[in-house]
Each structure stands twice: as C-alpha cells, then as structure tokens.
Backbone:
C-alpha cells in the first residue's frame, strides 16, 4: 500500500547504524501511531528501557506510555489493622513502599532484597492506590469526589477472586521478569501490614517495529485506545487529575477484568467485526474515514443508515454520546492457560478519571445498555482505587493524606 | 551539591521519611533549619560539615522476631560521599540499642566472621555498601524485639563531630539468618579496610562472600 512501509520495516531490524540515513525516510506512514509528532526516524534507542523517575506531582505510571508488561496487584489490609483504623501502620507501609519504588525504578534491588540481581532498568513504574475500604470518615481520609464502588451492570459476571481490594500496586515495565520481581518484593515488604488478594498480569504492544510509540491492540485485533486524551494536554489534565484538596495530583482507577470470547468473535466477518466497533481493523481509523487519530463522524449516513452503527462501541463511548464525559484508558491483554491447555482470554481494562461516579459510571452504563461488543465481552472482575498523588525526593507516598 | 548551606549547630536530618536520605532533604530540611545568614557562609567555603556530604540510600534493619538471639541485629544501607573531602564514619548509635558499632566481615583464622572497625573512610565521590555479608552497623543490647514493619532511627557519627540521622524500616531477611547472632568480639582496630569504595549500584554485587574483595 505504501511503498515506504516495507523499507521502514527493514530498517527497524538493521538497527541504529543506519539511523542517520533513514531519518525522515518514511514520514506519513501512520498505521496505529499514537503520537502524531513522533519523529519518523528510526528510534531504537528510544525504545531501550530507561529509568522512569518516581518523583513528581503525579505518580508517573498513570500517564506513562504503556509498557510491554502490566501487573495489577490488589492487597487487603490485615483485619486487626483495619478494625483499629491504624493510620500509622498504613503510613509505615507507604514509607516502606516508597523506598522500594525508588530503588526498583532505578534498577536496584529493594532494601533487604533477597534477589537484587533481578532488578533492572526496565521503564518500571509502580502506581499505588487505596481501595474504598481505606478512605472515608472513619479513616480520617477524605474520599476523592465521586469515589465509590462501581454499581452492578447487567452484563457483569463478577467473580470474587478478581474483585475489590484495599490497596493497589500497578506495576508496569519492559519485561515480565523485572516486573514479577518488583511485585514479589513489594508484596513481601507489605506482609506485616497486608495480604495478597489477587494478581493479574497482561501484555501490551505499545511500540512498533521501530520502537516508536503506538496505540497497541487488544485480542480482538482492534487498535485500542485511539480516542484517549493525550498526556500533557489540558484535556488529559482535566480528564484525569484531581486538582484540589488532599488528593490533588492523584486520580481514580477502575480495573475491570474483561473476558473476551475469541472463538465466537472469530466467527464474524471482518465487516461485522468492524461495524461492532465503528473502526477499521487494520489501522484503527474510524469507518467514516481519516486516520487512527481522526474523530469518528457520528452524523455520517450512507444509504439511509448510520455509518457508525447505533450500537457501535465508538458511538456508545464517544464523549458526545456521554455529555462530554471522557476517560483515560489503558489495557493489558491476558491469556490464562489451564493445565489442559484451555485458556481464558481477555483484557485487563484500566480506566483513569478524576471523578469515578461522574465519568466512568455513566459511560459504563451507556455501554452496558446497548454496546455491540457486549456480545463477546464480559466483566468478570472489578475494583476501584483512589490513586495517591505523587511524591518528591525525601517525601513518601501518601504523605498528603496520612502525615 | 557543592553549595549546600551549612549550619554550625547540628540538626537531625533525614527524619521525615524512610527512603529519605538524599539531596532534596539535605537541601530542604537543612535549609529550613539553618539561619538565613548561615546559608551564605557555605558559598564562601565556610565550615562545611562532613554530614552534609554523606548521602544515605536504601537503609534497612534486619528484624529480630524469630531469631535465635534477639538482642542484636544489623543495619544496612548505601553510603555515598557527595562532597569534595573525605568523610569518615567513626561510629553509630541508636536509642533502642545499648551498643552500636561499625563492623566488617573478614577471614579470621580461615573463617569468615565479623569484627569491629574504628572508622570507615569515604573518599570524595566514593561510596560503601553496608550489606549482609559485608560491612554493616552492628546493633547490640537491644531493648526489645524488632519486628518487620517497624521503623527505627539510628545515628551515624562522623569524625568532625557531625551526625546523620537515618530512619530505616525493619525488614525480614532470611538469608544468613544466624549471621548476626554469633558475635565475634575480636577487636582489630585496623583502619586500612576503609579505602575500598563501593559503587552506587553496588546492590547488584553479591552479598554472599561480599568481603572477598577486602584486604584487611
Ligand atoms: Cu556485626
């Protein structure tokens, strides 16, 4: 289709030695490219894992570009600490985790690490949040505006084993060995305070063959996340970050474990698959034209019918269908393989928003009512967390709320 | 780092947080604790304390719960000298320990054991790992058990009389569990061990037999 595409793919394999010669060679190839202004030159070195500073107004994992591996971990505070509303213990856990996050992000083992050699520079971020059981009056921790459990949806088939939790660790990184090590150390150091509730691991292809950021695809093959507000923009800030009070700089997260029925999805024709979403499968562009990042044209009609079907996912979730409400979403594909080789497949869906009840819930209800994708997707797990604001050097996670 | 404001009075530092430790705190807390005029004296190369140059990262203390001898344990951390002059540690103290000493691991009569050292010299730009199997701060005559999840404070004493207070989490550690109970009272007092510099990413180096590169 595009003559330069083959060449660019080739350049991706030959590496940095030809970087200069290749610069600018293929401007205009968009594909599933998330960041429009990303330079067209090969960017292998950009794709190499780096140290992501853990410091800042926000925890860096929220806005960071999706990494290859995501692990979501929920823990429960020990019953005796919960009963006594032991804020001091909670604060100590946050300080222990802060030290762990600082060392893991830098590629060092944690203090007291039994296997520090497994720590590595890996784009590692650790995002920490508190569940509904640890915020509110009885804890003396004001809940963020609109922070509450997600109400039951008629298509939900929630399983206890993937639902709820008092504490969140969202660990993202370039490889599963490093991420798994980080999770084990963080969970081990939490042991005096909290016990593991569930772990969910998923994968994402957030970079193309040349190392450039791209949107990535879910297991239906769809480019997934094209309509996201872009980090660093005002739209992102107003969508995601809490802007006042003790949670300023934080956000809220809904984690949904969405089972996807691949065998029945595979029975559809490509046209049926594309119609259910309202986007093309090859490049993620709306069926109304343009490129991946073009807005869908919800008013477009052809032969007396909507080009974007009434129940198409892109219409049901579009801000104009939802009173302007938006989310910032991330995904991680999972495949849980059983002993006999059968597997459960799906998406660990993560929705970040300033106001959970004001943004996520109505959009989810709009989908629950009539989204075409409901036929092949089922939420089997759900959890809500208030994501702590960021911290600076010498500070600790949650000091704004627990100090 | 070169132009840290200094105070003539010593102040507790690194107090507000466990990971604490570093530059920002020195700049932050130190600055606040200082009188306004003293901020200038550092610029003119005045009396900088050694404590201003000592950067402590990743501190932790081994829990005693479940150990054979709960009266002693050890503290570990990474030390860096970020200043222009040598920093010499001469000792340590902690309210919860009757006695605290700087220790190294060394072969004594063919067997690895730990022994007290009188000082630990960090040349400018050099560091030293305090880790299981290597140098550590020995904490003895503890006044109670230390459980994983606790938080303790200890003070590092420097040769110019300045001090650095370190807040450290207490963590479980099973490797070499018996190591810090079999206290070897050999008191060598030689100081030539102190010139090997650790590295900042030294936690990647082995902990077992970590004293192998030392020549006491
Ligand atoms: Cu010792």
Residues:
């Amino acid at each position: 289709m595009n003559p330069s595409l083959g060449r660019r793919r080739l350049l991706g394999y030959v590496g940095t030695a030809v970087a200069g010669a290749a610069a600018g060679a293929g401007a205009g190839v968009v594909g599933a490219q998330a960041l429009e202004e990303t330079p067209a030159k090969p960017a292998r070195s950009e794709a190499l894992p780096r140290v992501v500073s853990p410091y800042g107004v926000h925890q860096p994992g929220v806005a960071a570009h999706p990494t290859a591996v995501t692990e979501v971990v929920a823990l429960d505070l020990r019953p005796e600490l919960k009963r006594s509303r032991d804020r001091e213990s909670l604060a100590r856990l946050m300080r222990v985790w802060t030290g762990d996050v600082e060392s893991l992000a830098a590629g060092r083992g944690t203090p007291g690490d039994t296997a520090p050699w497994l720590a590595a520079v890996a784009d590692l971020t650790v995002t920490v949040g508190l569940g509904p059981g640890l915020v509110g009056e009885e804890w003396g921790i004001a809940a963020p505006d609109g922070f509450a459990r997600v109400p039951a949806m008629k298509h939900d088939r929630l399983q206890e084993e993937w639902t709820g939790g008092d504490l969140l660790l969202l660990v993202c990184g370039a490889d599963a060995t490093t991420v798994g090590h980080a999770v084990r150390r963080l969970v081990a150091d939490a042991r005096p305070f909290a016990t593991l509730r569930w772990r969910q691991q998923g994968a994402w292809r957030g970079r193309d063959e040349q190392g450039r950021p791209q949107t990535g695809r879910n297991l239906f093959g769809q480019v997934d996340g094209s309509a996201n507000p872009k980090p660093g923009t005002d739209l992102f800030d107003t969508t995601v970050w809490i802007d006042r009070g003790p949670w300023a700089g934080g956000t809220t997260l809904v984690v949904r474990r969405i089972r996807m029925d691949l065998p029945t999805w595979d029975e559809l024709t490509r046209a049926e698959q594309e119609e259910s979403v309202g986007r093309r499968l090859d490049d993620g562009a709306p069926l109304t034209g343009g490129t991946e990042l073009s807005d869908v044209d919800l008013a477009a009609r052809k032969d007396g019918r909507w080009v974007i079907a009434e129940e198409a996912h892109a219409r049901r979730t579009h801000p104009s269908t939802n009173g302007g409400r938006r989310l910032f979403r991330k995904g991680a594909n999972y495949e849980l393989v059983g002993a006999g080789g059968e597997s459960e497949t799906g998406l660990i869906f993560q929705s970040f928003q300033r106001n959970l009840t004001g943004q996520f819930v109505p959009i989810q209800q709009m989908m629950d009512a009539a989204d075409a994708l409901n036929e092949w997707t089922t939420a089997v797990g759900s959890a809500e967390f208030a994501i702590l604001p960021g911290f600076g050097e010498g500070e600790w996670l949650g000091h704004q709320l627990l100090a | 780092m070169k132009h840290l404001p200094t105070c003539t009075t010593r102040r507790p530092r690194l107090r507000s947080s466990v990971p604490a430790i570093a530059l920002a705190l020195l700049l932050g807390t130190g600055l606040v604790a200082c009188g306004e005029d003293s901020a200038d004296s550092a610029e003119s190369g005045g009396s900088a304390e050694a404590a201003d140059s000592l950067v402590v990262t990743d501190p932790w203390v081994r829990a005693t719960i479940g150990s054979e001898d709960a009266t002693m344990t050890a503290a570990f951390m990474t030390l860096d000298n970020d200043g222009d002059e040598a920093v010499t540690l001469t000792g340590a103290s902690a309210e919860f320990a009757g006695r605290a000493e700087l220790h190294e691991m060394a072969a004594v009569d063919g067997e690895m054991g730990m022994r007290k050292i009188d000082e630990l010299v960090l040349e400018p730009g050099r560091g030293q790992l305090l880790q299981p199997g290597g140098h550590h701060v020995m904490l003895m005559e503890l006044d109670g058990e230390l459980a994983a999840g606790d938080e303790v404070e200890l003070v590092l004493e420097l040769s110019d009389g300045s001090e650095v207070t370190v807040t450290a989490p207490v963590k479980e550690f099973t490797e070499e569990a018996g190591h810090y109970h079999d206290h070897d009272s050999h008191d060598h007092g030689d100081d030539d061990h102190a010139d090997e510099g650790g590295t900042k990413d030294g936690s990647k180096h082995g902990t077992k037999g970590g004293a192998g590169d030392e020549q006491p």
Q: What stands out?
A: The interface with chain B takes residues 89, 92-93, 95-96, 98-99, 102-103, 107-114, 116-117, 119, 188-189, 191-193, 392-396, 399 of chain A (CB under 8 Å).
